[in-house]
Amino acid sequence: MSSTTPEISRAVVIVVVIAGGLILDQHLEFWGQTVTNCGVWALLLHWLRGADARQQLTLTACVVYATLGEIFLSLAWGLYEYRLANLPLFVPPGHALLFMLGTILAARLKDWINWAVPLAAAPFIGLLLVTRTGTLDALLFVLFLLCMLFGRAPRLYAVMFVLSLAMEIYGTVLGNWAWGAEVPWLGLTTINPPLAAGAFYCVLDQLVVATVARARQTRPSAQGSLAFT
Question: Which residue would you say has higher pLDDT here, 223 or 61?
Answer without folding.
Answer: 61
